[in-house]
Amino acid sequence: MSKYYDxxxxxxxxxxxxxxxxxxxxxxxxxxxxxxxxxxxxxxxxIKPEEIRSIADISKLPFTEKQDLRGNYPFGLFxxxxxxxxxxHASSGTTGxxxxxxxxxxxxxxxxxxxxxxxxxxGVTADSIVQVSYGYGLFxxxxxxxxxxxxxxxxxxxxxxxxxxxxxxLMKDFKADVLCCTPSYAIYLAExxxxxxxxxxxxxxxxxxxxxxxxxxxxxxxxxxxxxIKAFDIYGLSEITGPGxxxxxxxxxxxxxxxxxxxxxxIDPVTGEPLPYGQEGELVFTTLCKEGLPLIxxxxxDITSLNIEPCRCGRTFVRMNRVTGRSDDMLIIRxxxxxxxxxxxxxxxxxxxxxxxxxxxxxxxxxxxxEIDVEVNDSMFSDxxxxxxxxxxxxxxxxxxxxxxxxxxxxxxxxxxxxSEGKAKRITDNRKI
Amino acid sequence: MLVNQIAVFLENRQGRIFELTEALKKANINMLxxxxxxxxxxxxxxxxxxxNAKAIKTLKEAGFTVNSTDLxxxxxxxxxxxxxxxxxxxxxGGIDIEYLYSFKKxxxxxxxxxxxVANIDKTIEIIKKSEVKLLEQKLY
Lengths: 433, 140
Prior knowledge:
The complex is a heterodimer.
Chain A: H1 13-34, H2 36-44, H3 66-71, E1 85-91, E2 99-104, H4 105-121, E3 129-132, H5 140-151, E4 155-157, H6 164-174, E5 178-181, H7 183-195, E6 207-211, H8 217-227, E7 230-237, E8 242-248, E9 255-257, E10 262-267, E11 274-275, E12 281-287, E13 298-304, E14 306-307, E15 319-320, E16 325-326, E17 331-333, E18 336-338, H9 340-351, E19 357-364, E20 367-375, H10 385-403, E21 408-412, E22 419-420, E23 423-424, E24 427-429
Parallel strand pairs in A: 3-4, 3-5, 5-6, 6-7, 19-24, 20-21
Antiparallel strand pairs in A: 1-2, 7-8, 8-9, 9-15, 10-11, 10-12, 12-13, 13-16, 14-15, 17-18, 19-20, 22-23
Helix pairs in contact in A: 1-2, 4-5, 7-8, 9-10
Chain B: E1 2-11, H1 16-26, E2 31-38, E3 42-49, H2 52-61, E4 66-77, H3 82-92, E5 97-104, E6 110-117, H4 120-128, E7 133-134
Antiparallel strand pairs in B: 1-3, 1-4, 2-3, 4-6, 4-7, 5-6
């Protein structure tokens, strides 16, 4: 069994640059012809597709922002007719609208391939049994890993998320040797295993592939120790494709980006200027092969750096270091992207006027919990407990349905939340990741 | 007769009720009666003062969320079954009571019950047709 899934993972940097250049030239032509928004963006800065001759020209192209996806909701940025789109996924947008991604058959195949590369790098083989405990559905985690496992010929157990007792029972009975889920769920699972007095020897787990939320070396050590496995970081975002954009190899020193499909850049988040390898900044991706939703210089708002040093594993793909933060205010709660603006619009809708509020995030028993403290103002206040409690419940259920993650609402007195220069401090993140 | 009440939002924090009474004291406002409804996160303090308009202004300036509402005041004899007779009238009249609290003024044999009801006009109409005595004296 080869330790690489694809030959391309070890091609020379020169060959890779040539491949990327060829793909970029085709991509730019394709989007200019098929996507009015891209044509308008390029026209606005007087760039013609002919001027993009190699990957070195990429910085001439304008960025794509999440707002571009929202502004073209739902299918406006698709570069192929709908008859060629075979699947849709969606993730949280900055307001009520979702960010929608469409995939052609080729897109799905490419995605399966990059996931298969990631699994192979983590030591998964055709003999492996892989339990996928990411949510299945509009979220890309579950189905993304699922088809990658099938692509490489291993066995997939599509448990999806939730129902931990059943997850543990199946893990024990089916003898899964690989687990895919969020790192915080892995810790939770480990504690549940302990609570059930199950010996780890009754499980057959050897490898865990964890992503969809930032985690640390300390968390890795906790997971590896408590489940007796090797833990690998997998990176991705639905706009670019989903999980599998990058994944760690056995050396755990950064995640190799599948650069033949996704061209990474690091930019200064303020000026937009490209930064050299090694320097920390905002990660930007260009999808070199995507047909359904090709994106040019898409700003992920994830802060990291790229490592071009050759890796001992032999892969020539550049490695991205751990994501250390965000250049916007997006929060990741239990693997779900949450924007404070989504919370704000729910509050506006239910409270008539915009109340002062604060988002407090914590990690309790290894699971993220979110509390929204809302100052009770005159228009919300009632002398009846019944009415205040029903407002609280309405907020909680509206938040749940809009964010796809639960939040506890706490009503607090006016002028009690911390403010700076008259504005409430919106987010307190007490998680120690 | 109707009795005007103020209601104040109180988050569950040590010293919060003290801060409220301190603000009223500084403004020389006297509370005649109060009650608190509490939940795990917050409470609602309801009170009748000798100057509700001034109390509202004072408390708002002190940063409290306040509103005011009218309650139906009833006088009952301070003896076993006094309240039961009133509640029987309201129950048979189909009146939904949101909350109530009571107190007894000194030098007077009667207790005073303040009712928060959904429909004040209907409540008064029903009471007037019964033996129950609406509060007549001014509380302040």
